[in-house]
TrEMBL record:
The lineage of its organism: Bacteria, Bacillati, Bacillota, Clostridia, Neomoorellales. PROSITE patterns: PROKAR_LIPOPROTEIN (PS51257), TPR (PS50005). It comes from the Bacteria. TPR repeats lie at residues 62-95. It comes from Neomoorella glycerini. This is Uncharacterized protein. Pfam families: TPR_16, TPR_2. Gene3D superfamilies: Tetratricopeptide repeat domain (1.25.40.10). The keyword Cell cycle does not apply. The keyword Repeat applies.
Amino acid sequence: MLPARLKRILAPMVMLLLIALSGCGGGLASDVKVLEKAVASQDWDTVSGLSKKMVQEHPERPEGYYFQGVYYYHQKEWQQAIDNLKKATELAPAYAGKGGDMLADIYIQLGIKLFDQDYQQSLELFKNASEASGDKSTGRRIAGIIMDQVNKKNAGKNFYDLKDYLPLLQAALQYDAANERVLFYTGVACRLRNENEEAVKYFDRLAPGPSSGSLPDRLFYFPSDAYCVAGRNMEYQFLQAGRWPPVPARPAPVILAGGPGPGQ
């Protein structure tokens, strides 16, 4: 038990501390509301100034770092956005969901920018994007971006150069395993590298157990040059010869004595 005299001395100090803490909390909540409205109205001067003030006054709280991240994200200052959003998540793991989509988009933008210089680094950034978001739609977006980059690299070249991009195609499938376009291109790339067993695996996933003649119809979904070079002339014949019986020959029309056959 504290002596009565010490209690009398400490009581006002404790009360002042409680009042200060209460005011601080209320001020922080009020600032958050102001920042939310500023973000909605794209008042970036307010977002920048007030979020910096929050970080200075409450460095132990995630809110200021989060809104700093939002500000830098919209200014396309990617690294500062990453640093602040990750700091907010470190202080409060719940902010991983709040800022995850922005982090994912930042990593994707950086990955696209670096693709021509170092696609391996781009793939690492895409992996970071997928982990930050945790959403399947992000994976589908990444797969589409990788395919766009493959097409860009292969623009103006012979379609057979696709074999050089097998690692990229396989990376795309990690993010969107059911994407028919990626499966088709990956199978073609394996076939061009004479990796026939692997090619068969990808084509099986593309069109498991098709009925006779159905696969060419599905290949028309892909770009016409890809279909003409790889589909009609090579892959469909390869599949027919290696996986399914050939389409039965159409019987010749029967010519009856005394007149033309049916349809004549």
